């Protein structure tokens, strides 16, 4: 199966052919893969070199002229390094763009912390008006990328990862999808965490919701699920643990509830390892997830992890 990033290149190439408003801005990463598209549309495929602040600034300039810019590089270089430009050039000027990242939280462990961005969604949460898509399968990445480009002039972040679920689901860029029903709690699985969550909750009496669009947070779906499953909620996110706990708390503010946020922990892992080893170290492997989720919905102390 191809990866989400493998899917990005042909999809954005077709979007360039289909829509004269679409422009792609790169900071060296991905430029070789889009060389053919650049030959067809030299004025709308722009490589600014290793200048990530300029990447965002150029995208904002294109948006000011009425274009729909798609900006692409690793998440740490797209959200963290040029954050001031994301805040000012896009947000302060009131223009939109589609930011499409690669590498996720630790997709390339050998790159070290410079190429890891577990805090990207939490950082965008400090700004107003961002839509955030976290696909869990290449097919979903294609759907959500097309949705993002077509979303008027909104500010949209599409978070791609090499981690993937086995099967795609019919995502719509808005709602959480119920994939399992139970009566002893609700588990929200974000993007590529779905398969692990389903394995971890096998035999547990819990409802599982699948989230590929996490901002805006689908409070309606969560509230609906808690009516039959109870108000113990576990969030399993492939980025910084607790990123969405405030959103879940706000959704259930008028009812007694408990929320547990599982995700990437704050301490830095200083050994490269593999993606699977990083998942286990952060408690996002199937065994650790089952221990935490089962302990939490039973009211035990195991639910305090993360």
Automatic annotation (TrEMBL):
Q: Name one Pfam family in it.
A: Transketolase_C
Question: What SUPFAM superfamilies does this protein map onto?
Answer: Thiamin diphosphate-binding fold (THDP-binding), TK C-terminal domain-like
> Which CDD domains does the protein's record reference?
TPP_PYR_DXS_TK_like
Q: Which InterPro entries match?
A: PDH/Transketolase, THDP-binding, Transketo_C/PFOR_II, Transketolase-like_Pyr-bd, Transketolase_C
Where's the Transketolase-like pyrimidine-binding domain?
2-168
Q: Signal peptide location in the record?
A: none
What PANTHER family does the record tag this protein with? PYRUVATE DEHYDROGENASE E1 COMPONENT, TRANSKETOLASE-LIKE PYRIMIDINE-BINDING DOMAIN-CONTAINING PROTEIN
Protein name in UniProt:
Transketolase family protein
Organism listed in the record:
Streptomyces hokutonensis
């Amino acid at each position: 199966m191809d990866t989400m990033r493998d899917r990005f290149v042909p999809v954005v190439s077709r979007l360039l052919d289909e829509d004269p408003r679409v422009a792609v801005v790169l900071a060296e990463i991905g430029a070789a893969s889009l060389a053919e598209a650049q030959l067809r549309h030299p004025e709308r495929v722009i490589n600014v070199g290793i200048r990530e602040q300029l990447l965002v600034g150029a995208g904002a300039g294109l948006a000011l002229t009425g274009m729909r810019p798609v900006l692409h590089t690793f998440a740490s270089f797209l959200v963290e390094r040029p954050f001031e430009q994301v805040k000012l050039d896009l947000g302060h000027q009131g223009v939109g763009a589609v930011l499409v990242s690669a590498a996720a939280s630790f997709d390339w462990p050998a790159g070290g912390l410079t190429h890891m961005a577990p805090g990207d969604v939490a950082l965008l949460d400090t700004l107003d008006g961002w839509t955030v898509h976290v696909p869990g399968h290449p097919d979903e990445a294609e759907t959500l990328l097309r949705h993002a480009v077509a979303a008027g002039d909104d500010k949209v972040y599409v978070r791609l990862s090499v981690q993937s679920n086995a099967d795609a689901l019919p995502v719509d860029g808005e709602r959480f999808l119920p994939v399992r029903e139970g009566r002893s709690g609700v588990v929200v699985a974000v993007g590529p965490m779905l398969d692990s969550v389903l394995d971890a909750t096998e035999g547990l009496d819990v409802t599982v919701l699948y989230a590929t669009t996490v901002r805006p947070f689908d409070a309606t779906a969560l509230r609906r699920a808690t009516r039959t499953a109870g108000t113990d909620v576990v969030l399993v996110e492939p980025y910084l643990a607790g990123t969405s706990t405030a959103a879940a708390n706000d959704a259930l503010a008028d009812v007694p509830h408990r929320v547990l946020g599982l995700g990437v922990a704050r301490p830095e892992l200083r050994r490269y390892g593999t993606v699977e080893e990083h998942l286990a170290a952060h408690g996002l492997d199937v065994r650790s997830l089952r221990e935490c989720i089962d302990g939490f919905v039973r009211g035990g102390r195991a639910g305090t992890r993360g």
